[in-house]
């Protein structure tokens, strides 16, 4: 049996490993090579070394997109996690004690479904939906209410100072439901008698949240922060479908993914677009590694 173990393992892994190499590793390797050429999509490109990367770091549009990612990295995870934590806490232990058992608010199971609904919507649907919500005239869902109270319509997507924050609001709205469910699953694993003991000791809701829930939910929070950070680097789809001039107005919402798309399919600069993709790849990997390293702590035993 022992002699037949390794052939069995190799035979079992051969197909998935081959598929992974062909459809994941090979495209990455090809993109890394293309980043070192001036390929424009038709004739074979010439090898130009690191020229694309030198040009990249001198590109003001790239740095502007990177600045937008910085704002997304701070705002999207922070706001989403705060809202999701509050809602999950209320759904699990916010309703008080019933027969000695901590319960959530009334209708918590229904609220979980409602909060999760935006997660199942495709990005294209979100773009169309929020184009109607953010429409700058009186026919917009928000501006129709604004005009009724006698105020001027708000240009959510045409005002450079508001456009990026409007995009962040959409991303938060879509993401919160998933993390409510994720945090609820984590909180359901916390023994209810811990909360009951804290209540008997006179702990308030706020002190239970910070002294019981957060420490015991730290690993889940760590995963959520990394996932949301990666989502902040992957905001291309919502920017492409929702914003004015795909990244406008005046580049106020552009992201690296948008510039990759523009350089590749509008300007046919596939080598330069590949260099942007390589830069985005390493930025994402670096963020994930640093986040896991900085937020690492000893696990709390329950």
Automatic annotation (TrEMBL):
It is a multi-pass membrane protein. CDD domains: TM_PBP2. Its main location: membrane. The keyword Glycoprotein does not apply. Belongs to the binding-protein-dependent transport system permease family. GO terms for cellular component: plasma membrane. Gene3D superfamilies: MetI-like. Residues 66-291 form the ABC transmembrane type-1 domain. This is N-acetylglucosamine transport system permease protein. GO terms for biological process: transmembrane transport. The keyword Cell membrane applies. The chain crosses the membrane at residues 7-29, 71-93, 113-134, 162-182, 216-239, 270-292. It holds the Pfam family BPD_transp_1.
């Amino acid at each position: 049996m022992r002699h037949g173990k390794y052939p069995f393992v190799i035979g079992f892994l051969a197909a998935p490993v081959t598929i992974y190499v062909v459809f994941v590793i090979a495209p990455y390797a090809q993109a890394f090579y293309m980043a070192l050429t001036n390929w424009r999509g038709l004739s074979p490109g010439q090898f130009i070394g690191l020229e694309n990367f030198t040009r990249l770091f001198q590109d003001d549009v790239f740095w502007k997109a990177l600045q937008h990612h910085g704002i997304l990295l701070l705002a999207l995870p922070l706001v989403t996690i705060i809202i999701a934590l509050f809602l999950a806490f209320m759904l699990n232990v916010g309703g008080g004690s019933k027969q000695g058992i901590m319960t959530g608010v009334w209708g918590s199971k229904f609220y979980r479904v409602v909060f999760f609904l935006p997660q199942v919507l495709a990005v294209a649907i979100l773009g169309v939906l929020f184009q109607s919500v953010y429409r700058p005239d009186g026919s917009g869902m928000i501006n129709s209410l604004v005009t009724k109270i006698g105020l001027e319509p708000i240009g959510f997507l045409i005002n450079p100072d508001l456009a990026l924050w409007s995009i962040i609001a959409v991303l938060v709205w879509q993401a919160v439901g998933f993390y409510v469910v994720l945090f609820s699953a984590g909180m359901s694993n916390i023994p209810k008698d811990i909360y009951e003991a804290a209540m008997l000791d006179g702990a308030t809701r706020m002190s239970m949240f910070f002294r019981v829930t957060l420490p015991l939910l730290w690993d889940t929070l760590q995963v959520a922060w990394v996932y949301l950070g990666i989502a902040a680097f992957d905001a291309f789809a919502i920017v492409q479908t929702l914003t004015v001039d795909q990244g406008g107005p005046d580049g106020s919402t552009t992201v690296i993914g948008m510039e990759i798309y523009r350089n590749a399919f509008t300007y046919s600069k596939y080598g330069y677009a590949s260099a942007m993709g390589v830069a985005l790849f390493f930025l994402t990997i670096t963020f994930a590694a640093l986040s896991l390293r900085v937020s690492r702590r000893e696990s709390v035993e329950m």
